[in-house]
Automatic annotation (TrEMBL):
Its cofactor is Mg(2+). The gene is aroK. The keyword Cytoplasm applies. One of its GO terms (biological process) is chorismate biosynthetic process. Belongs to the shikimate kinase family. It comes from Lentihominibacter faecis. Catalyzes the specific phosphorylation of the 3-hydroxyl group of shikimic acid using ATP as a cosubstrate. Mg(2+) binds at residue 166. GO terms for molecular function: ATP binding; magnesium ion binding; shikimate kinase activity. This is Shikimate kinase. One of its GO terms (cellular component) is cytoplasm. Its EC number is 2.7.1.71.
């Protein structure tokens, strides 16, 4: 069974977010993948050495800077490398990561002003995963992930692509 790399805050087993909370994903498809033991949770910020709770941070160009002005780019990069290692080890089908995060955001991130402004962009971990060819989606794109999961299983079971998919 193909695995899916997921943000640990979406997986919900540990309070890894900067505010000491989780963002447990309750979508029935996500719960089913969890019950199937398909999900591989990672938290790049904690894996990179940052504590819980921690000061929030945003991307500014290639750097990640905390609200109080500390450069945490090194920790973010280390966490991204650990996530990539895990993705490659497990030969994941794709990743489902938390939107808007400076690590895990895949379509939108905050603009670095700490005023709540979102811009098109991606987090440090997502950038590294995509550069290595891993497909990354957000928790708002589970339809696409479900298509990949069911399409893939269908190919494995029947040797044919799922109906309507090439
Ligand atoms: Fe969640 Fe990713 Fe932030 Fe960890 S780094 S708390 S997994 S969004």
């Amino acid at each position: 069974m193909k695995k899916i790399l997921v943000s640990q805050c979406l997986y919900g087993d540990k309070p890894v977010r900067y505010d000491g909370k989780t963002k447990e994903e309750r979508d029935p498809r996500f719960i089913r993948w969890k019950e199937e033991n398909r999900l591989i949770p990672v938290c790049p910020e904690v894996d990179g050495g940052l504590p819980v709770p921690r000061t929030d941070a945003q991307r500014i160009g290639d750097q990640v800077i905390t609200r109080d002005g500390r450069d945490v780019t090194k920790e973010y990069r280390r966490g991204a490398e650990i996530a990539l290692e895990r993705a490659l080890q497990e030969e994941v089908l794709c990743a489902v990561l938390k939107e808007k995060s400076p690590s895990c955001g895949s379509n939108k991130v905050y603009d670095g002003t700490f005023e709540g402004n979102l811009i098109d962009g991606q987090g440090i971990t997502v950038q590294l995963l995509r550069e290595a060819g891993v497909r990354v989606y957000s928790e708002e794109e589970l339809d696409l992930v479900e298509q990949m999961v069911t399409g893939r299983e269908n190919i494995i079971l029947t040797g044919m692509p799922a109906c309507g998919k090439s």
